[in-house]
TrEMBL record:
All copies of domain Rieske, residue ranges: 94-173
InterPro entries: Rieske_2Fe-2S, Rieske_2Fe-2S_sf, Rng_hydr_dOase-A
Coiled-coil regions listed: none
Species annotation: Friedmanniomyces endolithicus
Keywords per UniProt: 2Fe-2S, Iron, Iron-sulfur, Membrane, Metal-binding, Oxidoreductase, Transmembrane, Transmembrane helix
Lineage: Eukaryota, Fungi, Dikarya, Ascomycota, Pezizomycotina
SUPFAM superfamilies reported for this sequence: ISP domain
GO molecular function terms listed in the Swiss-Prot or TrEMBL record: 2 iron, 2 sulfur cluster binding; metal ion binding; oxidoreductase activity
Protein name per its UniProtKB record: Rieske domain-containing protein
Transmembrane spans: 12-32
Amino acid sequence: MEALPSLPSERILVPLLAVASAAFVAYIALQLPRWTHRISRRLLSSLPKSTAKEAAFEESQPVIVSKELDFPSDWWTSRKLFELEKRAVISKTWLHVCHSTLFKKAGDYRAFQIADFSFFVVLGKDGRLRAFHNICRHRAYSVVTKSEGSCLVMRCKYHGWSYDTQGKLIKAPKFEDNQGFSKSDNNLFEIRTFIDSSGFVYANFDVYGSDGLTIRVGVPIRAKLTLVDSWGVEANFNWKFAVPSGAFSVSSLIYLNKFAELLTKASGLFESWKWPTEFELSPLTRLMRSSNGEHWLTITVIPVSESQSTIQCSFYSSRTDSKAALRVTAVKQEIDDSIQKLERCFTIVSASDEIPDAASQEPLLAEIKAHSRLERLMGGEVHPASRMRATSQACKVADDLCRELELAAHEKLPALNGLDGLAW
Ligand code: FES
């Protein structure tokens, strides 16, 4: 039986349908990403606020990049490396400590702890703020044992050695009549301090460090600003994970505080409260100011160990009503949430040996490598905060040599190939 010849309309319709189908599929393929994006945005906006904020936070997380060969595999977890960081970076960097408005009258003091450094700031009778290592010159007991207080004579509880507000030893029971004993040789060890034009107080543990401090705070703080609250939160992550995200150099103060950066993105706090201005007070501290200039918040990441930090916060306000206290409560909650998110991030990163945003960590690595090289040249550990370096002419000469070698170590840095031979 002969096949029926196809109708002319059929011959036209089949290719037309094929073309139409192909065009439809292409249209769908083109539109699908747009539709998906719209749907996901609608879904995201329909989520409860906190969930949407968490999604935004996840988006803001740094992209994990391949591990740099220069970084040791235990960059986040090494105790030995943390010890080196204290000598190489924390001992040599200008660090924000507090605000000068905390000290009203002579004798007012505040005690602080950064890494192993226990010290206090006290207002002298001469109206000058000074910082001292909290170490009695007799047997190294703590001179002040409270976090804050006020006294014109600080008496060590152990054997009664007493110091005035300028750190001078004024009483040393049973020692004063000893031949060869000199009170003036046993004053408290002073730490170099600096107060910027906004009244923030900085300290540098390096005995012979540079005084060339450049402060980036450009907006003066109101004179009536008072501390509303100050608190610390323990955080289970390495300080390097929270701090450096910009150029890190001991000789410069151009830093970003990654913790505050993430906090801002994560919480939306500063968006809703209109906190448009942020400053880097030091490598470890970020300052935020409300747009009306009424409120200021400092967030400091204090290194505690290779796996722990303390997030120290201070909230200042020109208002003394209940509104300021209410805001502090909200700030505390946001900061707690952000710390928990960072802790979860750190758990993943530290287990994988990855270096998120490795480029931002490289300047810090460079400082550590330079100091490590210096220690190799010196044949032992170099402690910039060690007061023994300043106690005799011989030590001064050794220290000058140390400085020259330090510069040499920095100059030779680009020629270093990896960390081979460096004592981590
Ligand atoms: S340790 Fe301070 S007086 Fe003895």
